[in-house]
Amino acid sequence: MYRKWKTVGRGLTKQLIGLLAIGSPLAFFVTLAFLRIAPGIAVGPVIIARTFPTLTSVYLASFVALASGAAASLTLIASPRIISESWQQLLDAMIGVEIAISLIPPAAVVGIGLAFDRADIAIQALALLFINVVCLNILGSIPILYFRVGGLEPLRFERVMRDSVEKTVKSIDEKVEISTEVILRSNKKADVFVSVQATAAHSDVAPLLAKQISEEIKKETEFSNSVKVMLVPVSTYTS
Predict the structure, then answer these.
(1) What's the domain range around 63?
(2) Is 238 among the domain residues?
(3) Are residues 23 and 140 in the same domain?
(4) Which of 132, 148, 164 is the last residue of a domain?
(5) What's the CA angle centered on 171, arms 170 and 172, to 5 degrees?
(6) Which residues contact 77 (CB under 8 A, 6 or more apart)?
(7) Cα–Cα distance, 40 to 236 (Å, whole number)
(8) Which residues contact 208 (CB under 8 A, 6 or more apart)?
(9) Does residue 115 have a pLDDT over 80?
């Protein structure tokens, strides 16, 4: 939605690096260990299923990845996004499931294929992994996010509120560290929690800061809001 393509590229790169630099090597070494313990282990149908030997398997894997990406995206943009801990747990579960069923298995099979000295299995599993990454992240997720929140909807409101917090706090001190949580209670109401790492010199500004942030959010979004500011004291030492 925000069209930050550099962020998209970094996210995809980190995802692939994590799968191929951690998932595949881990599967490779675990498989080697099992082969030493039980040399009779052979490639089974579960492994073959992750190398898409048939066109039907390609279609099925692509459909699962598309559905996983769409489902996870829908949970992220559901309104209100976060209203309770149980709802947050649902979001985390959906995102975890999409990774578990679409990305981890082919990444693991890349390592397993190499451990069995089967380059054909590793290459085919790698191709399936790339297909799943494209289907899940691009074909499954982006259309849902684009069409569902293309207007002035929850994610954009949240971003505006976070920007308002940062602008207000930084106007007082550009060097402070800020953590912001936004909870959208309805289409016109929000709760905002701000944590600011501050030195003793700023210890008495919390009430004024909360009022300024609230006014800025009201001006930018027309949301009624409740703003709570917590100042986390920090000390600096030099030698």
Answers:
(1) 5-148
(2) no
(3) yes
(4) 148
(5) 85
(6) 144, 145, 148, 149, 153, 154, 155
(7) 62
(8) none
(9) yes
Report how far residue 205's alpha carbon sits from residue 147's, in angstroms, rounded to the nearest whole number.
41
Mean of pLDDT values over 212-223: 89
Is residue 196 within 8 Å of residue 213, measured between CB atoms? no
Q: Are residues 75 and 172 in the same domain?
A: no
What pLDDT, on a 0 to 100 scale, did the predictor assign at position 81? 46
Residue 152 clears pLDDT 50, i.e. is over it = no
Whether the CB-CB separation of 50 and 65 falls below 8 Å is answered with no
pLDDT band at 153 (very low <50, low <70, confident <90, very high): low
- Mark whether 162 and 90 lie in a shared domain: no
Question: Contact, 123 vs 51, CB < 8 A?
Answer: no
CA-atom Rg of the chain in angstroms: 24
Q: What is the CATH number of the domain that holds 165?
A: 3.30.300.20
**How sure is the predictor about 151, in pLDDT bands with cuts at 50, 70 and 90?**
very low
Average pLDDT over residues 115-136: 87
Overall domain count for the chain = 2
Rounded Cα distance, 235 and 28, in Å: 47
Sorted by sequence, the CB contacts under 8 Å of residue 20 that are 6+ apart come out as 107, 110, 129
Assigned token pair, 38: 């039980």
Is the CA virtual torsion 72, 76, 82, 88 positive or negative?
Answer: positive
